[in-house]
User: Which sequence fits this backbone?
């Protein structure tokens, strides 16, 4: 039995991305403590035997005084728990969790780069300053990771090119957090009427505005087609104001479905899944849609391109190109018979490559638990 501590940017992360791994580790007799800046899902985690401890950590922004306090509290938590290994997910948990593990003299620490985030994508002067700071912190912190997990080869190549990984770092690529193919089961896509579904946080970097612009183009020719967005409004440097979305809802261009704890009914009621994101780790929403048998339109960008075999289970398009997005979606409108054919291929890829049991086996093997 191992005592394991997880450090993530927000507690819902455990529900959305780590749930199956947590259950698997608990079922094998390990003791799991979950750290997060909020305790919103305390009861859900307790129900499967995971102890959630609220720990200050702000995953966005750079407040040196708060970040020092976060580091202090992380060290305090880890010294109290005395875990055998620590698993850090996302930016701030990696930057401060790995060093906290070092200060708390934890034997093994693993970092999971789940995407590079807005700091690497943006090109403003502020982004460049933040990127310089983040690169310095990454290079320092990753020295204390026994192994670094990446969700796509592009992110690994980027970290190598920026010399963020040292000779002591072993890096591996994992197929995201996987998808439960027994929970997200296949169902024939609904094609009457044809509908396109985006599931994501409502932020610019997910390509939400490109989707809306493409919908405007297609609505003029095919007014019966539906364009749907499901996901929360969030606090983020890339966030989109509610007024912008509601304006297009009021004009009848899109449907905003709100947010949900269970995406399956919405996927089952759609024809094609769309994610015009600028960059991802491995998008969980795409994997869930694929497992349920939807073809996919996504960008030829890191993390996104891994999920689609072009012209097999969907179409790859350039990022930030609403016209290319509209043309790709129109192919399904003109020839709806390809929807179920490509949807079956999506399911096959999900089963072969992204089955959460295979993904979790790979992770556990690489952290020394199998």
Assistant:
């Amino acid at each position: 039995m191992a005592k394991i501590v997880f450090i993530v940017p927000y507690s819902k992360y455990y529900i959305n991305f780590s749930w199956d791994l947590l259950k698997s580790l608990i079922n094998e007799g390990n003791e799991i403590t979950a750290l997060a800046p909020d305790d919103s899902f305390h009861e859900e985690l307790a129900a499967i035997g995971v102890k959630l401890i609220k720990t200050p950590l702000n995953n966005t922004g750079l407040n040196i005084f708060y970040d020092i306090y976060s580091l202090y509290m992380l060290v305090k938590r880890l010294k109290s728990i005395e875990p055998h290994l620590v698993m850090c997910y996302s930016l701030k948990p990696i930057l401060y969790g790995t060093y906290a593990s070092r200060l708390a003299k934890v034997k093994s620490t693993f970092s999971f780069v789940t995407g590079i985030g807005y700091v690497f994508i943006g090109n403003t002067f502020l982004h460049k300053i933040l990127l310089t700071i983040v690169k310095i912190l990454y290079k320092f912190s990753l020295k204390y990771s026994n192994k670094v997990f990446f969700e796509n080869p592009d992110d690994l190549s980027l970290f190598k090119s920026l010399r963020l990984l040292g000779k002591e770092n072993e890096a591996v690529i994992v197929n995201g957090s996987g998808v439960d193919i027994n929970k997200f089961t296949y169902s024939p896509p609904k094609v009457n009427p044809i509908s396109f579904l985006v599931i994501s946080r409502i932020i610019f970097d997910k390509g939400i505005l490109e989707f809306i612009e493409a919908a405007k183009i297609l609505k003029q020719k095919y007014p019966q087609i539906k364009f749907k967005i499901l996901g929360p409004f969030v606090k983020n440097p890339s966030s989109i104001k509610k007024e912008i979305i509601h304006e297009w809802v009021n004009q009848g261009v899109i449907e905003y479905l709100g947010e949900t704890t269970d995406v399956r009914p919405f996927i089952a009621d759609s024809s094609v899944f769309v994610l015009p994101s600028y960059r991802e780790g491995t998008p969980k929403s795409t994997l869930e849609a694929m497992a349920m048998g939807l073809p996919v339109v996504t960008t030829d960008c890191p993390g996104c391109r891994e999920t689609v075999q072009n012209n097999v289970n969907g179409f790859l398009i350039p990022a930030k190109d609403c016209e290319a997005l509209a043309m790709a979606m129109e192919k399904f409108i003109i020839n709806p018979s390809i929807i179920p054919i490509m949807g079956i291929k999506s399911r096959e890829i999900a089963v072969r490559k992204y089955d959460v049991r295979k993904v979790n086996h790979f992770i556990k093997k690489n952290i020394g638990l199998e």
Summary: The longest strand covers residues 31-36. The chain has a mean pLDDT of 94. Residues 195-353 form a domain with the Rossmann fold fold (CATH 3.40.50.2000). Residues 73 and 247 are 43 Å apart (CA to CA).
